[in-house]
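Justification of resources, computational component.

The compute hours requested in this renewal are based largely on the per-chain cost of generating structure records like the one below. Each record pairs the submitted sequence with a full structure-token output. That output is archived, and it is also reused by downstream analysis tasks.
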Amino acid sequence: MSEVANQATPAVVTDLGTETLQEISPRQLAWIRFKRHRLAMISAGFLIAMYLITVFCEFVSPYNTDTRNVKAINAPPMSIHFFDAEGNFHLRPFVYSYDMEINADSWMREYKENTEEMYPIYFFEAGESYHMWNLFEAETHLFATREGYIHVFGTDQLGRDMFTRVFYGARISMSIGVVGVMLTLFFGVLIGGIAGYMGGIVDRGIQRIIEVLLSLPTLPFWMALSAALPVEWSSLMVYFGITIILSLFGWPGLARQVRGKFLALREEDFVMAARLLGAGRLRVIFRHMMPSFTSHIITTATLAVPGMILGETALSFLGIGLRPPVVSWGVLMQQAQNYQVIVMTPWLMIPGLFVVLTVIAFNLLGDGLRDAADPYNTGGNRD
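The structure output for this chain reads:
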């Protein structure tokens, strides 16, 4: 009999040794599964780093977003060197200055490194002053040069540093994804929970509304509603307007999923016991029913963030979303709307590269969370 009992309780190998499932909480078991998903772990690290950079982008960036360098218009990314032209090693990294000349055939600016003029890179160096979170003024930057200039991602057609603008843009684009998903979760869980818990005519009415919203073409309605935003609105009001528009079509799908979960849970014994004890409807929904599928909601939210980021990028790229002087990835990609820009100044497509990497990271993270939250998942390591 003991042998049968031991076979019925499988062992899980963890960093602390071999433990049985009875000795591991569901949260610990989910964490063990998630750690086995290597791509999800890498994606989580990348996203954490990106959000930390966006929070402190004033400190990370060497310049302000509107700072112009007239000596480097449409200049390519600078190479960081440790060895000079003579082969001598320098412990402190440096960049060379640019010499510019006009191509007689294409009339384009062409830049080449001037190996006789180098600019050492200093870390935690004083530079241009900025207002950190609009709370206090500071001038310390993660890296800067005391003389000359440094443009790791090159410059745009006005000589503005692309490295600075990319990470300032990340703050807007990535925060829209988070704020939009929070609104989607609020409306989706609330409305879906009410429909699934109450049923009857309330459920039927909500389902008809959801069906109408799901039948509408998303991108054309995004474009129409974005174009309808008043021109005189401030940048902050446009930001929240775009966020609400993006979340408007996001909650119906989640609400339908939550409804299905509530229909399955409302007849469970623990829900019936809460009702008999006199718990109100909202308490039953948020205190007793919601925790049973919180992991599913977290996974759904993680997978919804990329859609919000792509939506903002598409609307801003088309010129009907956020507009300058706001800096977002979509606004930056407006500069690359023709093939000449792509061919002659391909570094202006760097914001698009960050969009791709961020969307892939969120999708991989969501995949890992979904596998970790699935109690029946027995998949192996993910490479």
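The longest helix spans residues 162-198. Residues 100 and 111 are 5 Å apart (CA to CA).
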